[in-house]
Design a protein that fits this description.
Elements (H helix, E strand, L loop, with lengths): L1 H5 L5 E3 L12 H13 L3 E3 L4 E5 L6 E4 L4 E3 L14 H5 L3 E3 L2 E4 L14
Parallel strand pairs: 1-2
Antiparallel strand pairs: 3-4, 4-5, 6-7
Amino acid sequence: MEGLIARGAKVHYLLRGNRYWSNVLDEDESHLVENRLKEEGVEIHTHAELKEIQGRGHVQAIRLVDGRALRCDIVAYAIGVVPRLELAQQAGLVIERGILGRPVHAHQRSRYLCGR
């Protein structure tokens, strides 16, 4: 996204839910990221889900499930991942929202787990 913004492209960011990374970030953290993206010129669409990509020979637009259409030239699509935390949990690591919350032992200070 940063590369497109740096080239002056208009960027739309679709969120299926009501806020950015709601399964990882708390509400304040989500809004912090959203505000930063908006400052960079990104238009955020909440409760938005892609239905189809439209165009002949190249992308011209997308249509959302709710019927809205957005003109575009490029589509990047990712629906997220869910980490497999079993190994970290079996090792006794403390996990908070998919992120290593704090080291259990001093020798784990440099180990980090992220995702979710």
